[in-house]
Amino acid sequence: MTSVTASTVDVTPTSLRSQLARWPTGVTIITACGDGRPLGKTANSFHAASLDPALVGWCIDKRSSRFDEWVAVTGYAVHVMAGHQTDLVTRFAASGSDRFDGLDTMPGLDGIPLLACDVPLRLECRIADTFDVGDHVYLIGQVVTMTASHHTPMTIQR
Ligand SMILES: Cc1cc2nc3c(=O)[nH]c(=O)nc-3n(C[C@H](O)[C@H](O)[C@H](O)COP(=O)(O)O)c2cc1C
């Protein structure tokens, strides 16, 4: 019989990030209207929150370069990304560049910029509530419009 030894790990921001990265998640790109230019960010903190009412949530890092604009949005669109869409996922995680440069978008709910490509699932949401959670802010959205395709969502796990 194989024996598995578990060890206690000190809880630090680095160890927590590293251990939680072992939890498999999907990957989303979240878009919204910013101050005169679109906002977009790769995020895997996205999750379901409530079915009735239809609520979802994700957390924005307070260190984000456009944090003040993100916490002022009145809505956002969640694009659940497919396995073949790594280029977009990488583009929307990269800092210091215009993530929308040369990218086709179309206006969605309340003018939110939507990625003009097929994704497994797109949810257009209005902000229902926000909470301060440590070094992040939790943005809860009420799902207003849902668009689904046959593509299989991407999953990541370290
Ligand atoms: C797989 C993955 C998941 C991420 N999830 C989140 C997230 O849930 N919330 C968040 O604020 N940033 C998340 N990030 C980081 C952002 O995508 C982005 O890189 C970071 O916020 C820096 O953006 P900035 O240049 O606008 O500050 C994630 C990055 C990756 C690669």
TrEMBL record:
Keywords assigned: Oxidoreductase
InterPro entries noted in UniProt: Flavin_Rdtase-like_dom, NADH-dep_flavin_reductase, Split_barrel_FMN-bd
Molecular-function GO terms, alphabetical: FMN binding; riboflavin reductase (NADPH) activity
UniProt xrefs under SMART domains: Flavin_Reduct (SM00903)
Residue ranges constituting the Flavin reductase like domain according to the UniProt record: 20-152
Keyword Cell membrane: no
Keyword DNA repair appears in the UniProt entry: no
SUPFAM superfamilies attached to this UniProt entry: FMN-binding split barrel (SSF50475)
Annotated family: Belongs to the non-flavoprotein flavin reductase family.
Name of the protein described by the UniProt record: Flavin reductase
Organism: Xylanimonas allomyrinae
